[in-house]
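User: I'm designing a mutation panel for GTPase HflX and want to avoid disrupting the core. Could you give me a predicted structure to guide residue selection? Please restate the sequence first so the numbering is unambiguous.

Assistant: Good idea. Sequence first, for numbering, then the predicted structure tokens:
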Amino acid sequence: MFFERHEGGEHAILVHPEFSEDSEREDPREFEELVSSAGALAVAFISVSRLQPSARFFVGTGKVEEIRQLVVAHQAEVVIFNHSLTPSQERNLERALQCRVLDRTGLILDIFAQRARTHEGKLQVELAQLHYMSTRLIRGWTHLERQKGGIGLRGPGETQLETDRRLLRARIKAIMKRLERVRKQRDQGRRSRRRAQIPNISLVGYTNAGKSTLFNRLTDSDVYAADQLFATLDPTLRRIDVDELGPVVLADTVGFIRHLPHRLVEAFRATLEESVQSDLLLHIVDAADTERDDNILQVEQVLDEIGAGELPVLQVYNKIDLMESVAPSIQRNEAGEIERVWCSAATGEGIDLLLQAIGERLGNDMVHMELPLDHSQGRFRARLYALGGVVAEHCDESGEMRVEVRMPRQDLSRLMKEAGLDPLPVPEEEYLDRLAAGEEAP
């Protein structure tokens, strides 16, 4: 990593601002969980009510003095703000408080730096850190801001800052090239799965909603899962079999959070593209969370930002084991389509219903039937196998070969047409739509 984090266990003063605008408010409980996930020990919590931030200190001078006294009393090493700070505000606060000052974005980046395990994950975190630190370089070189006269005092001044910025730009460019290669490799993998007609499913949701626990339950894996924010950072893909559907690829992704820093979304675009290219999104929701509805909206906003807002979504209301009198169930909309499943990844309750819902949502256009084949149709049979559509094959009493297939209707119709076989009958709904449009339907 370009920037190594300080060892954990630091004493921290937490500052939570409350503004009149609803869009600016953060959750204080979530803030404390973030600090705990970063490994810091909160020794004091201060709420600040303001109409708007102060340009110099973000908070008023009286509150700065109150925070300084708490820093001295608790011998705190860091003060953390539950809001974004400008570089100048950070510098002014550090001078006044005589300790390190961190804002919400820096806190999240620190957690991500701890969680990154793969080479790709570390590159993505480093890219976000570099963008974040590029505007804060000056605080390390304040003694060289102005050229001074006198022997030994003619420093390089801003030349040193420009040198550092050039080095940062070069490093950012190199990381972006490497991440572009990663993105192309992921694209190749997705194209291979599409050629094999294997659906892609991504688990998305608010951080700590239980995505990794559900992933482990569905795939019998041992992906790291913990009751903490951003326990998962690096994406994991596994192949599972779903009844009446066949193999699907399941992807566990990084969790979302309120006001996720835009630079972080940009840095993790290669990872988040797994969600964008999915056939179905499983939106995992912590059903026992009192902020459940707001968390759903936050996730939907991030999905819109990365271009996945229009993809099919199946909501999974997880952690029903923490709720009273809630049984596993499936909820449908007015059209009869499954839109929500209530289950518990921790206990396994309702997982069978979830698999049933996945099969139904992805298998609406699937055809499951037996086809009689003769010896002249070997090429047709080989194409069926190449697309992974053959479930089984056997000979009937008359010695005729029969192949059991399950694959998308459109692909099977195309193969049958190429082989000179009679086309599949058009589904009733499509037949009626064609008639209404004045088209000829077979």
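For picking mutation sites, this is relevant: The domain at 193-361 is CATH 3.40.50.300 (Rossmann fold). The two ends are 62 Å apart (CA to CA).
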